[in-house]
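Subject: for your reference before the review

Hello V.,

The reviewers asked for a structural picture of the protein, and I figured it would be easier to keep everything in one thread rather than splitting it across files. Below is the amino acid sequence we used in the manuscript, unchanged from the supplementary table.
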Amino acid sequence: MSDKPLSDLVRQGWQVINYAVNDAGGTAVYHNVLVARQGQHKLLTIRKKMVGEGVVVSELEV
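And here is what came back from the structure prediction:
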């Protein structure tokens, strides 16, 4: 995935349903986005890499 994973999903037709931010005790900020398309749902978790440039993305099918 690119450095703009949410933009990539929206371009593919996914719709943002909900968004939340969690602070992991000062170590990282996690952006959680629930997206949907044609009855499918995904939870996308995005955070900045601890070392180096870019982001770490995880997807969970729900």
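For the response letter, the relevant points are probably these. The chain is about 10% helix and 55% strand. The longest strand covers residues 15-23.

Happy to draft the paragraph if you're swamped.

O.
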